[in-house]
Amino acid sequence: MRLAEHLPVLPILLPLAAAMVLALISEFKRRTKITISVVSAVLQLMVAATLVVQADGVADASPAAVYLLGNWAPPFGIVLLVDRLSALMLLLTSVLALPALVFAIARWDRVGVHFYGLFQLLLVGVNGAFLTNDLFNLFVFFEIMLAASYGLLLHGSGKARVRAGLRYIAVNLVSSSIFLVGVGLIYAASGSLNMADITVATSAMSHNEYTLLQAGAAVLAVAFLVKSAVWPLNFWLPTSYGVAVAPVAAMFSIMTKVGVYSLFRLWAIVVPEENFPGLETEADWLMGLAMLTLFFASLGMLAAQDLRRMAGVSIIASTGILLAGMSLGSPNAWAAALYYLLVSTLAVGGMFLLIDLLERIRQFGADLLAVTVEAFEAEGMVLPEQEEVGVAIPAALAFLGMSFVICGILITGLPPLSGFLAKFSLLVATLNPVEGAVQWWHWLLIALVIGSGLTGVITLLRLGIRLFWVPESHARPHLRIIEAAPVAWLLSLCIVLTVAAGPVMGYLERTVATLSFPHDTARAVLDAAPVPSPEEVR
Fold it and tell me: At what angle do helices 281-303 and 440-464 cross, to 10 degrees?
């Protein structure tokens, strides 16, 4: 086989090999570890971009590549699938991982041990979850991702991280157990764990078998919903993400999207092809959960008293919007949801990095003093100087202020940036249902989407006033280029998504068109033939 034919497995092998090498290198050889990690991240970005180009070059619903690990024919062997959706998610992971890694080089990699190795293992789990076409291996990659996230969440130690980490681990262990129960039920109904094989088998199932399959998928969906932080299973997220160090919290913003992605894949198994793209009974409960998630996320935003918690709650709100777009069922809604997935992941990742920089202009006790000033109009307060970190860059305070405004616009969905375009596209799809007229719950969804943006604006304005306006003087911000550049990179990508909204939406519409015919994709996977041995070639 040519090297190009092995591209689908490289997003897994590259970080896995890097993690193995990093485990053998002493913590004192920091530059060597940095070099290996950055090279691995850059190569993953290049591979992901190549796979996106290859996936978009396929004319029909067939996948761009089907990779048979061990050269075993499906459905018995492990299969990696590259189509437009999986390639897009790989690219999103790579463009988020590289700036997070560069940001960590400034100082956060030194507050604990084995940071770079755990970071690479996290990428193994995330990339593997996006590529696998097998339910059991999806569970394996989920566990790799979660095991690495346990160590990364505790990176830097501290009582708050340990307390949040224990809660985070307990919740994910329970969801993993639920995951296994769902996989077992699906296997009992279909006799297979290969997603393509299960998709094809649904057309020949009896009523009882299909009912058991739906029960297994419902149990599996609960595990995915826990990992996606859907209400009422999202109590763990704001605290856990809020205590993580900045580059880890930024990477965690993609982890909830792994659960949403898995729900997209599960949809093709549960909902028969002839029912797509109409709004089916299976989606009613999902829409209800999406609305409740949006509602309680809006309340959480109003109650947030610090930026870290607000950023965590905004992830919950984004999950609600994504599930709402999915449950609408129309191709336009799915495309809008995927576009919003890109924007929200990059914007929240940039926000977590930015918050770490914004804390440098805050004086000790700034939250308490800001509230005091607001309440009593105190004047003449003199605060102690904060320890300087890094080297001053030109117009550092202006950079932080402008970045804060851009992040706020993106997260809340204000015009004219890509966050607004994503929400507007979703609202248009809501008002144009595939079947029937606009129902009352369509208007309720519109009100919740707009309301979540409004509560986000109120909270960010309140926190922004406390941060930039109320203090009479700010500590002089000292930033390093490797800290400011990742934030600028992520926000610039969001602006690029605004300017290139047409081509990006075109790609997403073609992605949804591929997802509309899961049986065609499944048959292409099952028809993949192993590579013949040299003896067979002769």
Answer: 20
